[in-house]
Amino acid sequence: MAVKDRVEAVLNVGLRVPSIMLLDVLYRWDVSSFFQKIQRSSLSNNPLFQYKYLALYLHYVGYILSLVLLTLPRQHLVKLYLYVVTALLLFAGHQVSRDYVRSELESGNEGPVYLEPLSMNRFTTALIGQLVVCTLCSCVMQTKRIWLFSAHLLPLVARLCLVPLETIVFINKFSMIFTGLEVMYFLASNLLVPYNLAKTAYRELAQVVEVYGLLALGMSLWNQLVLPVLFMCFWLLLFGLQIYSYFSTRDQPTSRERLLFLFLTSVAECCSTPYSLLGLVFTVSFIALGVLTLCKFYLQGYRAFMNDNTMHRGMTEGITLLILAVQTGLIELQVIHRAFLLSIILFIVVASILQSMLEIADPIVLALGASRDKSLWKHFRAVSLCLFLLIFPAYMAYMICQFFHMDFWLLIIISSSILTSLQVLGTLLIYVLFMVEEFRKAPVENMDEVIYCVNGTYRLLEFLVAVCVVCYGVSETVFGEWSVMGSTIILVHSYYNVWLRAQLGWQSFLLRRDAVNKIKSLPTASDSQLQQYNDICAICYQDMTSAVITPCSHFFHAGCLKKWLYVQESCPLCHSQLKSQTATPNQDTPAANQSPPVQEEGTAEKKQKDGAPPDDRKEEGKAGDASTSSVVPSAPQHLVKTPSSSSSSSSFLRNQSPTDYSSSSDRVDILPSSPSLSHSPTPFISCHSSSEQMGQGEMTPAECDPAPALPLDIQESSTGSSSQPDKPTSHSEEQPPLPFSL
């Protein structure tokens, strides 16, 4: 941002602060009580009291002028302040001239000025003051006609000309009248300017509302007036004046307890009007934003500002303060009661800030623990912030219990602090588990179960704390003083922190229990089946020394499949629903179904003996007219990652002519033509690949052996398919497709 833009931004805020201060003063000023005081005093014959209703009208006119000053464009606002400064300079020139004439009358010296040293000093001082006033007025009004502002020099010129003192008094009055006429002429010439501005503003507002609507108009005014910064500057100015007025009347030093009381009472004094309350709300919002920004910077450095979260802007804390202040009637209370209530509200705001800091730190700490980053400085920053969030809320809850009598509001603050400490403790425990796994250089058995137990433990403690708060609130409502606000808070707290938490926790428990039962019900693959399958787990891309078999004949690690079932109840490859079933003793069928390449190789050898080439798919399709067709199970389209270097597979497919596929359509369906399958993902062509290539996150298939038949899912008979190839198969299973990147 350029220097000019920064200056304009500062002026845009600074020049509007007096309008907010004027609104605050007008709100504090009670016109009726003011006139009642005048009536009781000796000033009952004052002309101001006789024009009471005129003063009332002027009171409302002051509100209108304040709103006009608040909404004026910056250029017109600058001009208005320049005019006001010029008027003040002219008034200062009038005061200098009047004081000089009065001092000359008191001295009674009518001789030459240079003969009397005191007269010469007075004359020199007045002359320099008038010249400065004239110069400043011409500079402010940006005009070279300096004589327009030099009417107050006439008494000085008359004194140099040895004019009698009585005549100098008349000349001074004439200069005042002349300056007043100039001001009146200027006001008359600009009388229609407010009307023209109002007309132009109305036209522009009507156009904006017609094109964009009221919401866009409100957002535009909010951004142009910079209301949050404006109210924050106004409140800080009030607070600074309050502190200055206190210390200017005190000579003795203040103790620590006195400083805390001074802070609370000063804040309470600056919350006596709606405008000052809004100023406090925006000030708290900016303080919360600053604390959260420092927290992000402490954890991530400058990277925190690249992808900033719009949720942590400090507005939650400001809105919380505003709602509590409005509901408790903070403005209407006396200063002492207001300070006490503000202390409780500020504790709630601090608890909200700590919760927001935890929301920022939690994912960063867990990601740092799961990563291989060995930077000690990063780990120190993360752990130190977590320790602060663990200790400070507990200390704050202890101090609240020490200084305040327990009630429902304070119990909410204490429960929030305890919940924050519990959440931080759970985060630190998971971080320690991640670091232990990193130092062991080997995966910890059942790490997910341990993490789930840790999360479940502190979630259960959170639930118990929420139940205790609800029970205390209900007992206080039943046996104590009932209020609509307290009952509403109890209902909201019961729904969000008790009912929803219990429901989510129970659903998570049921889902994990069902996943465990399903894994137990699935048959376990034998060593011979794993050798015949000869592939890796499609979830973790690791070799399988033990596996379970799904009803759709897919092999997975038991732990990997259990993690998958925690999320959804379907097969990771074909997405068929997995239901709990009893383990069947007959496990030979999946083995038979998982060996179509072996049987196809035998069929190819038989055809070679008969003189048929093994790669001729057309002849092979004619020889197998009795075999039933099968559809290759396909993975979901959003999970399939098409390899960019599958040259062998693509060349193998290009070698097949369209007639080959059409002639073999009665045996193998490669591209289904039904409308219901027109949007299904393209089937895989299975080929053997090494586990090293699969562990790199991208599927790079190895070269396929074209000697056997197409490695698609082929339905074969369970009773001697090699001896009777012309008979249809009795039952079939699908061969699992290639693993793919998740």
From TrEMBL:
Principal cellular location given in the protein's record: membrane
Ranges of residues in domain RING-type: 537-575
MF term (GO), any: zinc ion binding
Biased composition (Low complexity): 671-683
GO biological process: ERAD pathway; proteasome-mediated ubiquitin-dependent protein catabolic process
Compositional bias per record (Polar residues), positions renumbered to this chain: 581-597, 652-665, 715-727
Alphabetical list of PROSITE patterns matching this protein: ZF_RING_2 (PS50089)
InterPro entries hit by this protein: HRD1_E3_ubiq-ligases, TRC8_N_dom, Znf_RING, Znf_RING-CH, Znf_RING/FYVE/PHD
Name listed for the protein in its UniProt record: RING finger protein 145
Protein source organism: Monopterus albus (Swamp eel)
